[in-house]
Amino acid sequence: MPDLARPAALALVLALAVTGCGADVSREEGKGDDATASSGSHYPVTVENCGEKKTFDSAPRRVVTNDVGITEIMFALGLEDHMAGYVMPDDKGDLTAVPWKDGYTKTKWLSKERINKELVLDARADLVFAGWNYGFNEGEGFTPAALQRVGIDSYLLSESCRNGQGKARGVMSPLDALYTDLRNLGKVFDVEDRAETLVTSFREQVAEVQAKAPKGADRPRVFLYDSGEDKPLTSGAFAGPHDIITKAGGDHIMKDLEDSWTTVGWETVVARDPEVIVINDYGDITAEQKRKFLKSYKPLANVSAVKNDRIVVLDYVDLVESPRNPAAISSLAADLSGFGS
């Protein structure tokens, strides 16, 4: 998936060294009512994040998030007061049509460019919530290890956990990744009841859709098209579209790819003959431009989805790990039902 980040200004390393960072910043700055709650019997707490045990002595108070899905996980948990701000470009769709839209008015939009160490230092962050290829990137030197060296803690989006096969990502099903992050963050911020309510509600919503969805051979073959002309970027088994497609009643044609977001060859797409194509809508190339490309690209001319014009669009935030995933399942199920078997 597209990565978000860009240079700003390195200035507060010394100040942070004096005051302390990570969980220590939470304790130093937490002098009010929140600090009293943080020092109660709930803490310290330990969660497992991408195979690493992380212990928090108090709730982080100046979280910086990267990208829309990650930011909305915090908003869905009602954690705006624990945020220093968020980073994301302005190509991520309608930010007002969500149940937690107030989070966007209460929280500072720090940058529409790429997240980087200087930006989070300027924000006096004590925790960065991002992911591999969702902000964290060795090539640009912005990694959890680099942040730890300047005293800033990190939490990795579970969808982006690396699985030990090079830089391949994904260690659990996409919805389980969402539920894991909600529960982990619920524990870290002492809002476990709120997290469990969300998980229960999402599970019920998904189960209701699944009960009505096609089964077995009746499921239409579905391909997720993100971007790319020479080679398409698509979803493997560990990115959000896999569960969105399968729970909505589709047969995800790239379900055998043990990765999250990855490229494949067009010849594989043609051979698997999707009956429906889902376009990921974001970025400089519009969904309509992507549709026109798919319809005009000669190697796809005989693919069922193109021949029958069965192409649907979902927003980026629907498809990456986010609290909008269950609603996306409902939306896609309605589309697939409209097409028939």
From TrEMBL:
Q: Which UniProt keywords apply?
A: Signal
Domain named Fe/B12 periplasmic-binding is located at 62-341
PROSITE patterns registered for this protein in UniProt: FE_B12_PBP, PROKAR_LIPOPROTEIN
Q: Which residues form the signal peptide?
A: 1-23
Q: Name one Pfam family in it.
A: Peripla_BP_2
Question: Which InterPro entries does the entry mention?
Answer: ABC_Transporter_SBP, ABC_transptr_periplasmic_BD
Family indicated by similarity:
Belongs to the bacterial solute-binding protein 8 family.
Query: What is the name of the protein in this document?
Result: ABC transporter substrate-binding protein
